[in-house]
Amino acid sequence: MSFQAYLDAVETKTGLTPRQLVEKATEQGFGPGTKAGPILEWLKNDYQLGRGHGMAIVHVITKGPSISAKHVGTTGAHSDASDTLWLDGAASNPLG
Hints:
This protein has helices at about 5-15, 20-25, 35-45, 50-65.
């Protein structure tokens, strides 16, 4: 599953875009420098997200939407179309 697919699945599970979750995380006091544990606990308790989906959100909360270009344009299951994740919802993704 691509990184973007994880984020799209999170949107389906929670009804919130990744950007909306980042905003809610900021309201909780989470951001760059926050350890994964407290964010994962919050995501599990408030949104019933498991570790895999939670870690995708942890990444965008703590590191922003940029990802390694390692899988961009590859043919594997983890291939992403871009090294920048789309946070504004699957339906509006120009690459989706």
